[in-house]
Amino acid sequence: MDRLAQQLANESGMGPVATVPSANDLNGLDPKEVVDVRFFLKPEELDEASAIRKVTSNQKSKKTLMRVICGLGAVYIGLMPYIKGATWSMWWQHRPEAAIFWGGLLILDIYVALGQPGMMKLSRLMNRLDVERRICVSPQGVDITHGSLRQQKSWEDFSFYQESPTIFLLQTTGPSFWTLPKRAIPAGRGDQLVALLREKLPQR
To answer: How far, in whole angstroms, is CA 81 from its chain's centroid?
Structure first.
């Protein structure tokens, strides 16, 4: 975008356009100390990062168990009014609060039992894959720019990193994580990035 603005300014004779520094303009560091990565994240890279995260809910056996439990829960909730000697329509007429509460749980259980259809597409929309990312990794920390989002994180804000043949995953101490595609790492800076990650974070 800055290059386009500069080109339009030159063509109109306005001269150089002043640019507003982003949150991760190296903060006075020697550029040689910073691995500056800019990229548009691909859907398959986000899917891979979600798949390799080593959390209990992502383990295949745990997902299967969760689906079985929710499936059984859906059957039980579906039969609950009849177990109580009523029907869903009677509950809706005479106990609407119970019908709404248990009906909501029934829908949730069915959704999980079916494998949460559409969740991957929703994740892609929420992660704004159409917006360029910039991740600057340095000895001081990790500076992130994603659209209007600006974050300056210290290494203490991350709990671990993971590596696959195509991506690095930086897991924060909270639920969020950041994906760094290997294809976007500047030429000749891959070893420097790996050294920083190994020095600052445990690998899983």
So the answer is: 40
Residue whose C-alpha is closest to residue 175's, from 55, 51, 30, 59: 55
| Domains in the chain: boundaries | 19-41+128-200, 61-122
Q: How distant is the alpha carbon of residue 184 from its chain centre?
A: 18
Evaluated on CA atoms 175, 176, 181, 187, the torsion sign reads negative
For 42-79, the pLDDT digits (tens) are: 888 888 888 887 544 445 666 778 878 888 888 888 88
**Beta-carbon contacts of residue 183 (< 8 Å; ≥ 6 apart):** 39, 166
Spatial neighbors of 185 by CB under 8 A, at least 6 apart, are 35, 37, 193
Conformation bin of residue 20: beta by default, left when phi > 0, alpha when psi is -120 to 50: beta
CA distances from 13 to 2, 128, 151, 172 (A): 16, 35, 36, 46
Who contacts 187 (Cβ-Cβ below 8 Å, separation ≥6)?
A: none
DSSP single-letter state for residue 186:
P
Angstrom distance (rounded) from CA 204 to CA 196: 15
Two tokens, residue 21: 């520094």
pTM of the predicted model, to two decimals? 0.57
Query: Which tokens in the block code for residue 204?
Result: 């899983």
CATH fold, domain 19-41+128-200, is: PH-domain like (2.30.29)
Q: Confidence band (pLDDT; 50, 70, 90) for 173? A: confident
